[in-house]
Design brief:
Elements: H1 2-5, H2 10-37, E1 44-58, E2 62-76, H3 89-115, H4 124-140, H5 149-160, H6 167-196
Antiparallel strand pairs: 1-2
Helix pairs in contact: 2-3, 2-4, 3-4, 3-5
Length: 197
């Protein structure tokens, strides 16, 4: 199976990027589903990383953003403070966990389908790539690193335990962690691609 997933051709690179996009979209839809469960509107959908290359304002204060590197999707929700009624931290905790939960469920579903032999042979490399990326994305996002869902969960737990921080302070920590995480991920991808050249 590892040989099927090796990045040794253009097809494998395209497969990897396509399945990364699918796994990321599923992850963010997990957050959206959890937010909608609590009737919290999604105010921003951003596709990609890096500088904004296209922006569109939508009705009801919503916006759609396209960034320079079309890898990854992020959503924006209204802040917890200042909402009426103010939502409890456990609500945001469940929203933060929604993405990793969907990734892990997607991995289990694909592994079961593969194990039962219900996937056509030409699709096996694509499905296995998606399953591996999905489980990696789900587990790695639970790491307690600012910018990842696990970091957000740790911050919410700290608030629940009595730590008082401003929304602006929390956002700054998350943004810094996200930038560092994105830089590390970009470095790994570039290093891997350079090995192929």
């Amino acid at each position: 199976m590892i040989e099927e997933l090796a990045l040794n051709s253009t097809t494998a690179i395209v497969r990897l990027l396509a399945m990364l996009a699918v796994a990321t979209m599923a992850h963010e839809l997990g957050h959206v589903f959890a937010a909608r469960l609590f009737r919290i509107p999604v105010l921003r959908i951003a596709i990609g990383l890096g500088p904004v290359i296209w922006h569109r304002s939508l009705p009801a204060g919503r916006e759609f953003v396209l960034r320079a590197f079309p890898v990854g999707v992020m959503i924006g929700l209204p802040g917890r403070q200042g909402t009426f009624p103010e939502r409890p931290p456990w609500c945001d905790l469940l929203i933060a966990a929604g993405g990793p939960i969907i990734n892990l469920l997607l991995f289990v579903a694909l592994a079961v389908l593969d194990g039962l032999g219900l996937i056509a042979d030409p699709l096996l490399p694509w499905v296995r790539t998606l399953a591996l990326i999905s489980v990696f994305l789900g587990i790695s996002n639970l790491l307690p690193v600012p910018g990842l869902d696990g970091g957000h969960i740790v911050m919410l737990a700290a608030v629940k335990l009595g730590l008082r921080t401003s929304s602006r302070g929390q956002a700054a920590v998350q943004k810094t962690g996200l930038r560092l995480t994105a830089a590390v991920c970009a470095g790994v991808v570039v290093a891997r691609l350079l090995q192929l050249i």
